[in-house]
Amino acid sequence: MKNLLSSLYFLKQLTRAEVPHSQLRHFYLTVIRPVLEYASPVWHHLITKKQSDQIEAIQKRAIRIDIYPCAHDMTYTSAIFLADLPTMSDCRDQLARKLFKSTIQPTSSLHNLLPPPREHLSITRLRVPSKFPRIPISEPKNTNHSSHMLSRTIRLHNCF
To answer: Distance between the two ends of the chain, CA-based, in angstroms?
Structure first.
């Protein structure tokens, strides 16, 4: 939430710097809106009306105050029409439908989504110490810290 508020504040600063509306809208769609939509297909049908209204209020604030100040006196429906954006609820619903239509088809099985099984040989050889060559070590003549650490590390590697 803190990140979202700082992004809204930055949007306000861009408005004060008289950045064109198209670029403000682009900033909103690429920085703020993805935070509001994050994992929405998962939680969209579980949120309450109050939570949905809170998410909608963030978009309302961004459109009315920051991107299109002229929409301050408009209704929210008129403001989103002006901004050419769907409501957050419609957007979440559309994302959920898109996800479930593209990934879970009635004809396809979930078995196809699993990774292929590993070969038995590769599983049994994971802990075999002879698979990795031993690194020859020689004791350093000068015992500065870095060379001492290197020889200790090699010695530990050879133990496994």
So the answer is: 46
Task: Please give the Cα distance from 81 to 69 (Å, whole number).
Answer: 14
Question: Residues 63, 64, 67, 69: what is their CA dihedral angle, to the nearest 10 degrees?
Answer: 160
pLDDT in tens, 73-122: 888 888 888 888 888 888 888 888 887 776 555 555 655 666 666 555 55
DSSP classification of residue 107: S
Contact 153, 160 (CB under 8 A): no
Q: Which two tokens stand for residue 50?
A: 């109050």
Q: Are 63 and 80 in contact (CB under 8 A)?
A: yes
Cα–Cα dist 115/61, whole Å:
44
pTM (global) more than 0.85 = no
Residue located via tokens 């929210």: 76
For the chain, the structural domain boundaries read 2-102, 129-160
* Cα 133 from Cα 140, distance rounded (Å): 21
| Angle ∠(50,52,54) on CA atoms, nearest 5 | 70
Largest CA distance in the chain: 80
Give CA–CA dist 99/143, Å, rounded. Answer: 60
d(C-alpha 37, C-alpha 52), whole Å:
11
